[in-house]
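Researcher: We plan to redesign the surface later, but first we want a full-length starting point. Tokens attached.
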């Protein structure tokens, strides 16, 4: 894992997989957006074979993604190399920090991608990812189990069209809108925290 960052480079990631259990299921699609520059995106399908276990819901809901992974998917090594190259920033003080919505599957998929594709300890992401769901609970006072539409309405973010759902890049772009709106909401609180820390650091102790 990467060392603690001087400055975070927030990378919003969404993945699709053949099911929720990566011990038997496989990553098939990655979408990623640089939050500070939403036009800067990464997308690829990840190769699977005909014997890969595909859950019924996945086969019914996103069969085109499964087919694209089989026909157009990159080998794991190439997908990991391409994403790692894209993640590199021109600013040497920045470290990629992964952001996602209900991030468990996405985070595990990224960890496995880089471990299998690049080797142990080669994950370029910092070890402290950010999950939009608990961030919204704290920032907006939403209860556990809230639906995304409620969050988007509170943030003033346009809802994602149904025909774009479960496309990793479209989902990542939607989550970028949500994350950036939450950042704007939280920035005064973060700024006050940083100012208080600087003040305490500059105050001489007795």
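Model: Full-length starting sequence:
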């Amino acid at each position: 894992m990467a060392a603690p960052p001087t400055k975070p480079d927030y990378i919003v990631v969404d993945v699709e997989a053949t099911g929720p259990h990566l011990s038997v299921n496989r990553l098939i699609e990655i979408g990623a957006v640089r939050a500070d520059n939403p036009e800067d995106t990464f997308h690829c399908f990840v190769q699977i074979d005909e014997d890969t276990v595909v859950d019924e819901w996945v086969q019914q809901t996103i069969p085109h993604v499964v087919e694209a992974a089989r026909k157009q998917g990159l080998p794991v090594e190439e997908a990991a190399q391409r994403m790692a190259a894209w993640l590199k920033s021109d600013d040497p003080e920045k470290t990629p920090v992964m952001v996602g919505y209900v991030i468990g599957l996405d985070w595990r998929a990224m960890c496995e991608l880089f471990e299998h594709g690049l080797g142990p300890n080669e994950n370029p992401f910092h070890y402290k990812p950010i999950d939009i769901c608990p961030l919204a609970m704290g920032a907006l006072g939403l209860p556990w189990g809230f639906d995304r539409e409620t969050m988007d309405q509170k943030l003033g973010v346009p809802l994602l069209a149904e025909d774009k759902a479960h496309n990793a890049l479209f989902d990542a772009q939607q989550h970028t809108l949500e994350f950036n709106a939450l950042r704007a909401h939280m920035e005064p609180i973060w700024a006050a925290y940083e100012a208080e820390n600087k003040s305490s650091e500059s105050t001489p102790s007795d």
